[in-house]
Amino acid sequence: MSYFKDIAPIQFEGPDSDNEFAYRHYDPNEVVMGKRMEDHLRLAVAYWHSLAYEGGDPFGGRTFERPWYGDDMAAARAKADAAFDLFGILNVPFFCFHDADVRPEGGSFAESRRNLEEICDVFAGKMQQTGTRLLWGTANMFSHRRWMAGAATNPDPEIFAYAAATVKACMDVTHQLGGENYVLWGGREGYESLLNTDLTREAEQAGAFLSKVVEYKHKIGFKGAILIEPKPQEPAKHQYDFDVGTIYGFLKRFGLENEVKLNIEQGHAILAGHSFEHELALAGSLGLLGSIDMNRNDYQSGWDTDQFPNNVPEVALAYYEVLRAGGFETGGTNFDARVRRQSLDPEDLVLAHVGAIDICARGLKAAAAMLEDGGLEKMRAERYAGWDSDASQAMLKSESLDEIAARVEETNLNPQPRSGRQERVENWVSRFV
Questions:
Q1: Which of 123, 196, 375, 383 is the most exposed place for a label (fewest CB within 10 A)?
Q2: Is residue 286, in this structure, part of any structural domain at all?
């Protein structure tokens, strides 16, 4: 019998359903702005939080008892069985994984790679059988003690080399499985103390590493996107991939801004002191929006709690920015979220995803309604309408500072401030959410 017992595949039953094992708002075939909802959201289950997380937190260890926990290949295969059972129950099109989530650590790098390739073959068979696809793969270069001082930015060149070999192996597997993206998450690419850190050297190492990743992508013919996931801190005091703006500066520095996009997480945006929609809007304006990790933080906690989303207005504003940027291409919505350590039962894991998927469906529909209504964009355009004149564009593009100053004096210019109408636009959003 499956770990998930007799839980039937989740079906759409509509908003009036009282069946908790049903979607009330997520109808994969509902057309939103000319596209099926499933094709807008491109939902994915995170292998690490759903299958590998053991229920620990910074103050306590494992609380879950899953039958696939273990450090051998038999346990890895059992975990894969449970994973694809879960994907089927939820009827989601994608999943994501780190290498360490799916295979045991070997006694050597070569053994770890062989373990990964063996599970890759298992995945390939299950993906062909079920139609589930890989949204993205990535390498866990933060959990093992070898990564305690970083991977690409490590002061030890042998760690850099091990990281390069690890990423190559994960890219090969992602490519083989038809993954649509490859993500680089620098969980420990940062510092704990400036006193023993060479910022210049570590930045050069990170730039060289990413350049090699991009070069290898083209060498093997990987058609997916290379994505970086921003995160400001935790566990490091400061991480080099702090936020969207910081990463854009890094990409420009090394000439990679046209080769790499971003996988943006709600929880990380909050830790950086931003809103999720801010990070998405900035990425969209820079042409860097690739994919998203959908979760939330507990605003009373100062760390990354990775909870499932439950706030429709927040989610609606996030998808508004995704839609404004043109929607997902290779990216999608990955639930980088975990059930609470007291939520022990298989049903808890299923229902956490069901609720989150419905929240995303509601948020997407609200965002689409706002965009189709056009009220926000009209008010935004009106606020900047003065810049559309030929004179304003000439001032911006061709006039010198002294020419502008002279014209101000000649015309006796005395501009008065105009209302930003913040409350009006906030009220407008409230009509839809």
A1: 196
A2: yes
